[in-house]
Amino acid sequence: MANSCLQLCGFLLSSLGWLGIVIATSTNDWVTMCKYGVNTCKKMDELLSKGPWEECVISTALYHCASFTQILELPAYIQTTRALMIIGSILGLPAVGLLLMSMPCISLGNETQSSKNKRAILGGVLMLIVALCAMVPTIWFPIGANQELRLMSFGFSLYTGWVGTVFCLLGGMMLMCSSDSSTSSSRTYQDNNHFYYSKQGGGNQPAASSNNHAKSAHV
């Protein structure tokens, strides 16, 4: 029961974390920057919002966004952010599918528990890879943006990516721990049964040999 609850919590955390990473990948509110000093930007009410896909100018009378079309001319941190976030979003889909099929409430034919544990471990490993793919860009992007312009604050998309990364890490580790514990418990149960039957079989052999000895003596 405890393993099932741990596996279910890991599945929910992993799914929510993957959704957070997908939201962070598809939006552009990563960082808020300013071309001038902080006080000057506040007086002019002109800020710059930047993400992996476009850059927006935010003011009271203007909200204009320009997409990054020149891919080869982009800085390395933007190209790396695009690649890793897309890889993490794509890998999360089969990971969620594997974890869903490994739930205790779902049965695919006459499959054994060991096959479910293997799927859960594979899904947990994929979720850890998704978390690592999202961790690198969500840390490197604000550092690279701050080197270009003065960074004022973090955006909603960056916070969503951080929360999604933490959820995927926790969910992946919980799934792997629950699968390992259930596998070890099933092996212990099989070993105990094997020992019990071998003991019963060993106890019957002396009785059979004594009966044969009695028959030979009677003859």
UniProtKB/TrEMBL annotation:
Keywords: Cell junction, Cell membrane, Membrane, Phosphoprotein, Signal, Tight junction, Transmembrane, Transmembrane helix
Top-level taxonomic group: Eukaryota
Topology term for the membrane: Multi-pass membrane protein
Segments crossing the lipid bilayer: 83-108, 120-143, 155-177
Entry-linked Gene3D superfamilies: 1.20.140.150
Subcellular location: Cell junction, Tight junction; Cell membrane
Signal peptide positions on this chain: 1-24
Task of the protein: Plays a major role in tight junction-specific obliteration of the intercellular space, through calcium-independent cell-adhesion activity.
Family: Belongs to the claudin family.
Subunit record text: Interacts with tetraspanin-3/TSPAN3. Interacts with OCLN.
Protein name per the record: Claudin-11
